[in-house]
Amino acid sequence: MTHPGELRNCLLATLPVSDLDLLRPALETVALDQDAILARAGNEIDYVFFPRSGAISLMIDMADGETVDTAVVGREGALGLLSVLGPSPSATTAVVRAAGTASRIPASRFHAAFNRSPAIRHAVQIHVTAMLMKFQLGMACNALHPVKARMARWLLQFRDRIDHDVLPLTQEALSQMLGVRRTTVTILIRDLRASGAIKSGRRGKIEIDRLRLAAAACECHGTMRLEFEKIFAMNTARPISLAVPDEGRIP
Question: What is the pTM of this model?
Answer without folding.
Answer: 0.86
